[in-house]
Specification:
The radius of gyration is 14 Å and the shape is elongated. Helix 1 runs antiparallel to helix 2 and helix 1 packs parallel to helix 4. It has four helices and no strands. By secondary structure, it is an all-alpha fold. About 60% of the residues lie in helices and about 0% in strands.
Length: about 100
């Protein structure tokens, strides 16, 4: 699989996606998260919890995609937030204040 590809933007609202499209969206987000993890600077490391989370999401794609609209949207938005946070960490945009 070519990990360097850009994911196609999702143009429908999360609740408007059908079962197959939800599975595709999950797969895209998990792939994006893996790519971000793999491209992270060495000082960020590879947190084992993230590896386990991504494996569980992949293994649970069918039940997640079958969730009712409200639960699906919550899960989807949380995954998008995680992807955005990881993007900030990998690109160095995230700054911590002490």
């Amino acid at each position: 699989m070519n990990r360097s590809r850009q994911s196609a933007p999702i143009t429908a609202g999360p609740s408007d996606l059908g079962f197959v499209d939800r599975q595709i969206a999950l797969r895209q987000i998990v792939d994006d998260l893996r790519n971000l993890r793999d491209g992270a600077p060495d000082d960020l490391g590879r947190p084992p919890a993230l590896d386990r989370l991504l494996c569980r999401i992949s293994a649970s794609a069918i039940p997640i995609a079958k969730a009712d609209d409200e639960d699906w949207e919550i899960i989807f938005m949380e995954l998008l937030d995680l992807r955005a946070a990881m993007t900030r960490l990998v690109t160095g945009v995230a700054e911590t204040s002490h």
